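Need a sequence for this fold. Nothing fancy.
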């Protein structure tokens, strides 16, 4: 009971527990103890002969601690020094600041993923419910898709800056409502996105084949846009670049 132990480094998530006893000729039922954990508590805790010789500590903060214990005989005479155990307590990774930051970022990412997934699902439900009372005839859909492919790929109707849903529906011989339904349900696009996707693809090809003196504005009007601002917005949406940036990158690669 008189020897001080070497310093240790302990890592624990829940608790630290000490058990103690003394080797003496006196019956253990007549020995009392007192203990305290320095840097955690100031007062001694008394242990009567009938109590368990054990001390448990939870929720320790990082730092150095010394556990001290002293024994007394049946006459109440305490030992002069007692025993001590010094240790450094360092919390595990799950209690570190880095872990808390990582956990917080993961929670934010999961919440964001849930939010966008829910938003996408609601958009899908709205689109589906919009046409739930007017089921498309598969044969009409097939004919509509073939005509759309022809007038857009072969005739290149998207080059007409006055092209509208009504004009295109007449060309493929369906009502505007059915055409809108086909575009939404089968291509997941509205009329504007459907037409602009063709325009931007041709604009990209023209910019790839053009020389350095080719005007972006010329490309804009040739593919069917009626304003430079509309062209820039659509091009940025589909390529994440402005037409000028796209052209510059192409020229740098040549």
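Here you go.
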């Amino acid at each position: 009971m008189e020897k001080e132990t070497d310093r240790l480094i302990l890592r624990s998530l829940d608790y630290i527990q000490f058990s103690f006893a003394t080797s003496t000729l006196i019956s253990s039922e007549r020995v009392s103890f007192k203990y305290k954990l320095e840097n955690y508590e100031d007062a001694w805790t008394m242990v009567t002969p009938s109590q368990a010789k054990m001390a448990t500590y939870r929720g320790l903060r990082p730092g150095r601690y010394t556990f001290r214990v002293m024994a007394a005989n049946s006459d109440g005479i305490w030992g002069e020094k007692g025993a001590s155990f010094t240790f450094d307590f360092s919390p595990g990774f799950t209690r570190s600041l880095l872990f808390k930051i990582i956990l917080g970022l993961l929670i934010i990412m999961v919440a964001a993923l849930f939010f966008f997934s829910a938003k996408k699902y609601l958009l899908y439900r709205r689109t589906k419910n919009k046409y739930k009372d007017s089921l498309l005839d598969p044969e009409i859909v097939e004919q509509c898709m073939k005509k759309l492919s022809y007038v857009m790929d072969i005739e290149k109707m998207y080059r007409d800056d006055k092209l509208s849903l009504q004009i295109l529906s007449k060309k493929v011989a369906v009502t505007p409502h059915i055409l809108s339904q086909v575009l939404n349900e089968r291509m997941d696009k509205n009329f504007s996105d459907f037409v602009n996707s063709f325009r931007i693809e041709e604009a990209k090809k023209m910019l790839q084949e053009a020389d350095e003196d080719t005007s972006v504005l010329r490309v804009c009007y040739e593919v069917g846009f009626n304003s430079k601002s509309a062209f820039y917005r659509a091009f940025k949406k589909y390529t994440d670049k402005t037409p000028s940036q796209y052209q510059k990158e192409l020229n740098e690669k040549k």
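For context: The chain has eight helices and seven strands.
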